[in-house]
Amino acid sequence: MHIAIALFEGFDELDALGPYEVLRRAAEAGADIQASLATMDDIAEVTAFYGTTVRPQGRLALDDRPEVVVVPGGGWNHRGGRGARVVAQEGRLPALLRQLHDTGTMLAGVCTGAMLLATAGILQGRPATTHHLALDELREAGARIIDARIVDDGDVITAAGVTSGIDLALWLVERFAGAEIAVMVERRLEYERRSTVWRRS
Fold first, then answer.
1. DSSP for 32-74?
2. CA 124 from chain center: how many Å?
3. Can you tell me the mean pLDDT for 88-116?
4. N or C: which terminus of the chain carries fewer CB neighbours within 10 A?
5. pLDDT classification of 201: cutoffs 50, 70, 90
6. Global pTM exceeds 0.85
7. What value does the mean pLDDT take over residues 136-164?
8. Beta bridge partners of 39
9. What is the pLDDT of residues 56-98, one digit of tens each?
10. Does the domain at residues 2-199 carry the CATH identifier 3.40.50.620?
11. CA separation, residue 152 to residues 9, 42, 171 (Å)
C-alpha cells in the first residue's frame, strides 16, 4: 500500500513528519506500507511553516495514484502569506485531491488539512474534525462536526489538532496492517494513543 503525504509551502512540520515516521516504522515492523513525502510539482525542496526544508520523494499525480493521501495543515490559523489557507485559496491542491478521491484514493486530513478537504468539497455533509480553532470554519464549509480526536468515515479520515496526526497514522496502521503492528510501533515511539476513534457504525 502506498501512502503519500502531501507537502506544500507552509505545511506544519509535525502534521506531516509525525505520520511519516509512524508509517515508516510500521514498514520496518512488517507492514505492507510504503510511505512517501510528495508534492504536486517537481521541485527540489519545500519549506514547512517553521522553516524546516524537506526534499520531496515523489509527485502527487493521477497517473501514479496512491491508495491513501495524508493531507497536513499548517498556518491556517495564522492567516499569513503561506500555508494551508493560501493553498486552499489557490485551489490547485484541493482540485487534485478531489480528482484522486473520485478515482478511489482514501484521504486523511491532519489538523487543518481537513480544511483543504472541505475546500475540495469532499466533507460536505460528512462527519469530520479539525483543529479546535478551525472547527467553526469547518462547520460553515458543510461538515458535520464530531467531538473526537480521529473521525473515520470510511474513505475519508480526519484528525483534530497537530499531534493527532500521530494517532491518525497509528490508526491507519491498525486498520490496514493490524493491531499487533500498530501496538509495536506505538511502543517503539514511547507514545500512548489518546481517545477512541469515532467510526461510522
1. --EEEEEESS--S-EE-TTS-EE---EE--GGG--SEEEE---
2. 18
3. 98
4. C
5. confident
6. yes
7. 97
8. 59
9. 999 999 999 999 999 999 999 998 899 999 999 999 999 999 9
10. no
11. 27, 31, 9
> CA-to-CA distance for 72 and 13, rounded, in angstroms?
9
Distance CA 122, CA 44 (A): 30
Domain chopping of the chain, boundaries: 2-199
Distance CA 57, CA 8 (A): 13
The Cα 44–Cα 41 span in angstroms is: 9
CA torsion angle for 42, 44, 49, 51 (degrees, to 10)?
Answer: -170
Q: What is the pLDDT of residue 200?
A: 87
Query: Which among 100, 85, 158, 105 has a CA at the least distance from the CA of 128?
Result: 158
